[in-house]
Amino acid sequence: MKIDIRADAARFYDLSPSVPDDIPFYRATIPDSEASVLELGCGTGRVLLPLTAWCGYIHGIERSEAMLATCRDKLRRSGIGAGSALVEIGDVTDFDLDRKFDLITAPFRVLQNLETDEEVDGLLRCVGEHLAPGGTCILNAFHPNRDRETLIREWCSDEELFCWEVPYRSGRVTCHDRRPRLDPEKLVLYPELVYRHYYDDALLNETVLKIVMRCYYPEEFENVIVDHGFRVVRKWGGYAGEPYGEGPELVIQFQ
Asked: How far apart are CA 137 and CA 129, in angstroms?
């Protein structure tokens, strides 16, 4: 199992006000109340827990033990048993659950955390092996807000960029974004999220989360899916139904 890079930052994940309003979208894609759902990269259960009320069973895979501990605690406190939801440590690029699912999701850009072609191949292979007959999978990525050449030229920065600030445990937490480097050939970004916990003006601790974000443009994102032998069913440009290629997200449903 890989090192848990989110071990120290997991406690701050649910504080972020910048997550998308995607839960109604995923709820609407569940085929029926008896459907089985697989969520890849379930994290702290932000999407998984609400969806338990709308499907027969949901299974979550997450590689961060720290994130999964929070998810398990939420399930326990909500009284949701293993018959309705089960979460486990796993690698979304290499798993075998010995069952099929009616819907497979990987919310909030899980696919973009895969740095290499081999990892993307592994995730899509596992998706194909776990889809029930007639089942679908939904993957998403952000839609870059500038063309490739401009992104390569402008994305890196020597300055920290402010993201958000929220109250936290009689103090406050701030989040800043560092952008030290990118891979211009594969168009992989390497941002660093810096969380600082303050009491009044005193800094109590600082946590740095270094992540990978691989960029896709609309045609390229669709081609990745089609080239792995899947058929696109629907596609959107965002969770409010924006046309594909015109909104802030790239969202594709396929089988």
From this structure: 12
Which fold would CATH assign to domain 10-143+216-254?
A: Rossmann fold (3.40.50)
- What phi and psi, each to the nearest 5 degrees, are found at residue 171? -145, -140
The C-alpha atoms of residue 64 and residue 201 are separated, in whole angstroms, by 31
- What residue ranges do the domains of the chain occupy? 10-143+216-254, 148-213
Taking the C-alpha atoms of residue 183 and residue 185, their distance in angstroms, rounded to an integer, is 6
CA-to-CA distance for 248 and 243, rounded, in angstroms? 10
- Does residue 27 contact residue 54 with C-beta atoms inside 8 Å? yes
pLDDT digits (tens, 9 = 90+) for 111-146: 999 999 999 999 999 999 999 999 999 999 999 999
pLDDT exceeds 80 at position 2: no
**Inter-CA distances, 59 with 63, 74, 155, 171, 218, Å:** 14, 15, 36, 35, 29
User: Domain 148-213 falls in which CATH fold?
Assistant: N-terminal domain of TfIIb (2.20.25)
| Inter-residue contact 191 to 214 (CB < 8 Å) | no
